[in-house]
Amino acid sequence: MVHTKEIFSTIAEAAERLSAIIEHSFDGIFITDKNANVLRINHAYEDITGLKSEEVLGKNMADLVKEKLISQSGSLIVARTKKPVTLQQRFKSGKEALVTSSPIFDKNGTLIMIVTNVRDLTEIYNLKEIVQEKTDAMERLRLELAHIQNPESEQEVIAKDETTLAAILLANRVAPMDTTVMLLGETGVGKEVMARYIYQHSHRINNSFIKVNCGAIPESLIESELFGYESGAFTGANRAGKIGLFELANKGTLFLDEIGELPKDMQVKLLRALQEQEIMRIGGTKPLKINVRVIAATNRNLEEMVKKGEFREDLYYRLTVFPISIPPLRLRKKDILPLALSFLTKLNQKYGFKKYFSDISIQLLNEYNWPGNIRELKNIVERAIIISSHDEIRPEDLHLLHQSQPIIISSPSHLDTRQQPDEASIHLPIDLQDTLSRLEYQYLTAAYQQCGNVRDAAHSLGITPSTFVRKRKKYEETHPISAPS
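User: That's the sequence. What structure does it adopt?
Assistant: Structure tokens below.
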């Protein structure tokens, strides 16, 4: 027979083992009776929550919630519903945990106690932060590569003319500093090339160079592009949020091209970012510190815009700490041939050609007025090297003199459409597609020169700013042509 002493010994040993299991559990264990009175907690619970046993043992869970030791109680819910429940709990120590409270029934189905498992969320949060950091790093790299993959990024600064050398001298002086630089000059004079030159001679050379065209981004998207947004900031937003270009350029250089196109409300936020060196994501609650050097550029007269109230005066003075004017190509005659030869050399290497300019072609290049500046020169050389049938590039290959004629109708504009075609004198162009392209480019150029900015120019032609920028870029770079005379 089993003696009573042995039975008690067995029960005591089992209770001791059960106690050891509870105490050695990695998760916190919290036990109450059926009325949610605290019976026991283990050391893991104290470590996870920051609460001590004397604060909770013997107390009812309703009192703990009332005293704000815990935010809510799973045990109270189970005592009422008799069903397991999982919830997130916050403690007076500021710590948070995920708790699962489960009912324990006797053989008759009567609730006798409630056991709660408490899991520390610190590790989960740490893992989440690590994953988010890696995700942000990948997104940062993707965006950075998208901005770096720019054919103009490899263009070197060629300066032979005294006016260009003067601008380079200023760039060399300011490059090692973190001073904000404003580049002024007509479209196509090489403002981005100068910005990259300053960046490449700065101490930020090993970090990002990010370019943003302020005139090409729709007004509704400028803030999210520059400053980013948090998860769920607005309908259609990426669930993970988005890194803004200021964050992307952190510790590097941000090149704000066409700064004169920036809407008035965004000028305020840009000024704050420059002055405070911090930004706020859309939907964010905490400002983010940044360390960004800003180089801005414009072909507009910002002083006149300030007088007209189109540009904030405080932002103007903040941006023009160190202005550098880049002269147009027509005032840099000594740069024309070196630039043309540089473009020719690169294109010869690219296509395996051995082409060269004839003496007359060189003379024409030097005498031409270059309304489109360096960009037009590059486009003319690329077109010439493609269409020339000999190694020698001749005047007719340069296409500086427009040989094709637009359609000329001698009849009045109100000519009756019922008239026969032979009643109007029509001079057909040599190449219709080329003529139509030139005509469209002429309207784009004229609208921009008349309005002075992308948005107004696009509005005058009945197209969107993004379409205007895309078309102009196509004609200037993808299919290089000269505007019609």
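The chain has 20 helices and 16 strands.
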